[in-house]
């Protein structure tokens, strides 16, 4: 019988970071992963000289990420996107750089003059008196107007959640915006107040100016480095057969034909919500029922490559997003070869394009050739491409991104209340407090600290 401080199930980024941090704290930890590799959806494929991200395409340069990069000695592999690289929105048949300053907002043709004037009214719009969650669409319409919703907010949500702003919860997706209105009566006044309070506190540690990060060989280098550090404390191809609890957690597993049982004081489930629901259903059924309610969308990643001379314009930024009324089926496009070095051979450009999501679930049923034809047609409209594309491997996810729909914040509160009945049990993943990799890293670090604190004997 093997006795451990903590067992973690799921070697995606959340499980890897939590295991790494606990091991650094001196804890005996075992990370179990059902697949034959670590990293979850973070996977980089070398397609004949084109590094293709089959999951997320970049990381935000947060303190937590950069500290881990230092610890893992990956600084020499880190590549960063130009923080000045524009992101675009396709509207009215052309690309518009997203305005990131007041001067840019005044100049942009993405919004009409009336929409800009409507923005100026925001501080004087009456605050919402109702309690409970509100859709992002409702909030933005009330405070900023229809045009800002359609041309700026909805495309942004397509890029982050591939979701529907009419269904996504403001309180779950952007709780600070809701707090600004509640506390100050206005988003603008709330943001100004928060900025002043931040300046009055002790100055935060400066952050190197990295907006987006990756690694020379792709994002997969990051989970691979953590997995290497974990060594024998990471068990791949380990299927969890049963979880029981009698004081300690008892986990029966099958590992490459061998059956074994491991015990631990703490158990962290770091899988998607639907998998976590099944794992804990036998001993924490009330939590499992709530987890199973969290919806996911489906999405396809369709990377294409072109010779540089096929492009009517230079790919000079992050990429573009498309409002649903812009006449495109493609949700957005990330210009890999513009964003990071080494993403295409000389003379070539590459773009990873996304199609599907909540507003277009039927896209997942298209054949590969139909997906390529649809996306290529959209890119021709946007970028003036001549000739055909070079097809690169397509990735489909039937359950891609958790949707923080109306009621999600309340559901999370219920989950956290129910978890108090199961001391020693922890949950980590992108379905609770943020869908980005940066959110997952930050939350996994915090959970590891809590696990360590709870394992320490009282003095």
Brief synopsis:
The chain has 459 residues and is an alpha+beta fold. The protein has 3 domains: 2-42 and 220-295 and 404-455, 3-Layer(bba) Sandwich (FAD/NAD(P)-binding domain); 44-61 and 70-120 and 209-218 and 297-400, Polyamine Oxidase, Chain A, domain 2, CATH 3.90.660.20; 126-203, protoporphyrinogen ix oxidase, domain 3 (Orthogonal Bundle). It contains 16 helices and 20 strands.
What does this structure look like?
This protein is an alpha+beta fold. It has three domains: 2-42 and 220-295 and 404-455, FAD/NAD(P)-binding domain; 44-61 and 70-120 and 209-218 and 297-400, Polyamine Oxidase, Chain A, domain 2 (Alpha-Beta Complex), CATH 3.90.660.20; 126-203, protoporphyrinogen ix oxidase, domain 3. The chain is 36% helix and 22% strand. The strands form four sheets. Strands 7, 8, 14, 15, 16, 17, 18 and 19 form an eight-stranded mixed β-sheet that branches. Strands 1, 2, 10, 11, 12, 13 and 20 form a seven-stranded mixed β-sheet that branches. The protein is globular, with a radius of gyration of 23 Å. The two termini are 29 Å apart.
Map the helices and strands.
Blueprint: E1 2-9, H1 13-24, E2 29-32, E3 44-47, E4 50-53, E5 59-60, H2 63-71, E6 78-80, E7 87-91, E8 94-97, H3 102-107, H4 113-120, H5 136-143, H6 146-160, H7 170-173, H8 175-184, H9 187-200, E9 212-215, H10 221-230, E10 234-235, E11 238-246, E12 248-255, E13 258-269, H11 273-280, H12 285-292, E14 299-307, E15 319-321, E16 332-334, H13 336-339, E17 348-356, H14 368-383, E18 390-391, E19 395-397, H15 408-419, E20 425-427, H16 437-455
Parallel strand pairs: 1-2, 1-13, 2-10, 7-15, 13-20
Antiparallel strand pairs: 3-4, 5-9, 6-9, 7-8, 11-12, 12-13, 14-17, 14-18, 14-19, 15-16, 16-17
């Amino acid at each position: 019988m093997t006795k451990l401080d903590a067992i973690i199930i799921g070697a995606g980024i959340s499980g890897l970071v939590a295991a790494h941090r606990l091991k650094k704290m001196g804890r005996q930890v075992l990370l179990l992963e059902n697949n034959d590799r670590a990293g979850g959806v973070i996977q980089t494929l070398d397609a004949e000289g084109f590094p293709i991200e089959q999951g997320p395409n970049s990381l935000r340069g947060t303190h937590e990420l950069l500290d881990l990069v230092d610890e893992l000695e990956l600084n020499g592999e880190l590549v960063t996107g130009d923080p000045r690289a524009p992101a675009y929105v396709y509207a009215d048949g052309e690309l518009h750089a997203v305005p990131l300053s007041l001067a840019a907002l005044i100049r942009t043709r993405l919004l009409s003059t009336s929409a800009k004037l409507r923005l100026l009214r925001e501080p004087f719009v009456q605050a919402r008196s109702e309690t409970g969650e509100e859709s992002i669409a409702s909030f933005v319409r009330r405070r900023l107007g229809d045009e800002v919703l359609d041309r700026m907010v909805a495309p942004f949500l397509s890029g982050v959640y591939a979701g529907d702003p009419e269904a996504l919860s403001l309180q779950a997706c952007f709780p600070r915006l809701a707090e600004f209105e509640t506390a100050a009566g206005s988003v603008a006044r709330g943001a100004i107040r928060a900025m002043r309070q931040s300046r009055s506190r002790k100055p935060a540690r400066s952050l190197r100016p990295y907006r987006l990060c990756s690694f020379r060989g792709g994002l997969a280098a990051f989970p691979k480095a953590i997995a290497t550090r974990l060594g024998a404390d990471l068990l791949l191809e380990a299927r969890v057969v049963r979880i029981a609890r009698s004081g300690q957690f008892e986990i029966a597993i099958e590992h490459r034909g061998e059956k074994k049982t491991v015990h631990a004081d703490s158990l962290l489930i770091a899988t998607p919500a639907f998998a976590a629901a099944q794992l804990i259903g036998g001993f924490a059924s009330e939590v499992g029922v709530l987890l199973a309610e969290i919806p996911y969308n489906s999405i396809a990643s369709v990377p294409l490559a072109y010779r540089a001379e096929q492009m009517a314009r230079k790919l000079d930024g992050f990429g573009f997003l498309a409002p649903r009324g812009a006449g495109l089926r493609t949700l957005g496009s990330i210009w890999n070869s513009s964003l990071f070095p080494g993403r295409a051979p000389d003379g070539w450009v590459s773009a990873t394009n996304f199609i599907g999501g909540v507003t277009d679930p039927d896209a997942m049923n298209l054949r590969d050739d139909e997906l390529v034809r649809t996306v290529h047609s959209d890119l021709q409209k946007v970028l003036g491409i001549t000739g055909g594309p070079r097809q690169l491997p397509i990735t489909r996810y039937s359950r891609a991104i958790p949707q923080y729909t109306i009621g999600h914040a309340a559901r999370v509160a219920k989950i956290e209340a129910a978890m108090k009945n199961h001391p020693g049990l922890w949950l980590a993943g992108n379905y609770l407090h943020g869908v980005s990799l940066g959110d997952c890293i930050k939350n996994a670090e915090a959970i590891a600290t809590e696990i360590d604190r709870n394992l320490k004997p009282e003095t």
